[in-house]
Write a structure and sequence with these properties.
Elements: E1 2-6, E2 9-14, E3 17-20, H1 21-24, H2 40-49, E4 64-65, E5 74-77, H3 82-88, E6 99-100, E7 107-108, E8 111-115, E9 122-123, E10 126-132, H4 141-144, E11 148-155, E12 158-159, H5 160-164, H6 171-174, E13 181-188, E14 200-205, E15 208-214, H7 222-230, E16 240-242, E17 264-269, E18 273-280
Parallel strand pairs: 5-16, 7-13, 8-18
Antiparallel strand pairs: 1-2, 1-4, 1-13, 2-3, 5-6, 9-12, 10-11, 10-16, 11-13, 14-15, 14-17, 17-18
């Protein structure tokens, strides 16, 4: 199943066309894309039993928003790929990856224009992003996937100067400028993948590939990451979890490389789709 936020309305994507959920369900489910996660089990049951969905309509990618536009929590993992830790010159995490947040106001859809911070060093970070479907607190690795509504593509855009400024780094601020958390193009439920723990992810700037890896290279794969996070804090329905980025970021290059006005960043994950961000001064 693929669900999308189309012009602010919850939609099912069926054979490449959009079906409005509020209309198709006779008002049983609200149009608000974020609200569905509080009723995820009921919604999945309705979709599984719906035999006569209305015909969908065509849509433009630019009309899609983030599939979870207003989560209560955004949790992001750092240094969750060995090659990225190596390029950053940092030790591998042991019990838990470094954890930070991206503030909700940074969330945007899959096709967007992002204003670069003045005088900053803005970097790219392709990431697999998951959305929680049912509350997860102190869950085991074996049970973790049952709490995931689905997967989407994300970019953890990062302004490195403020992120790394001392005496204490400002990770969350440096990663939360407007537009710095694009997600989409839609949410894909785990059952759609042959192996949801092994997906190719990549990104390019102006057609030049910058990152390419597989989620099977995660130090803390999705089930383990959920288990470790939920041992500390409850993950709530609709919460968003960024799982980390592989090597190839601008910070780790020699010479270092940053996004500039006019650049186009294309980010994709196998079996989900792609994001497109264009940058302006």
């Amino acid at each position: 199943m693929r669900i999308a936020n189309l012009s602010g309305r919850l939609s099912l994507i069926v054979d490449g066309l959009a079906v409005d959920v509020e209309q198709a369900s006779g008002g049983r489910f609200a149009a608000d894309p974020q609200a569905v996660y509080d009723h995820w089990a009921e919604f999945r049951g309705w979709v599984d039993q719906a035999a006569d969905l209305p015909e969908g309509t065509a849509f433009a990618a630019a009309d899609l928003g983030a599939p979870a536009p207003g989560p209560r929590q955004v949790v992001a993992a750092g240094l969750n790929y060995r090659d990225h830790a190596a390029e950053a010159g940092l030790a591998l995490p042991d019990e838990m990856p470094p954890v930070f947040t991206k503030f909700v106001s940074s969330i945007t859809g899959p096709v967007s224009e992002v204003e670069l911070p003045h005088g900053g060093h803005t970097d790219w970070e392709v990431e697999l992003v998951l959305v929680i479907g049912t509350r997860a607190h102190r869950v085991s690795k074996d049970a973790a996937w049952s709490h995931v509504a689905g997967l989407t593509v994300g970019q953890d855009l990062s302004e490195r100067i403020i992120q790394l400024a001392g005496p204490a780094p400002q990770f969350s601020l440096g990663k939360s400028y407007p537009g710095f958390a694009p997600m989409g193009p839609w949410l894909v439920t785990p059952d759609e993948f042959e192996d949801p723990d092994d997906l190719e992810l990549q990104c390019s700037v102006n057609g030049e590939q910058m990152q390419k890896s597989r989620t099977s290279e995660l130090i803390f794969p999705v089930p383990e990451l959920i288990a470790r996070l939920s041992a500390v804090l409850p993950l709530l329905p609709g919460d968003v979890v960024f799982t980390g980025t592989p090597a190839g970021v601008g910070l780790g290059r020699s010479p270092q490389k940053w996004l500039a006005a006019g650049d186009e960043l294309v980010t994709s994950i196998e079996g989900i789709g792609e994001l497109r961000q264009r940058f302006t001064d």
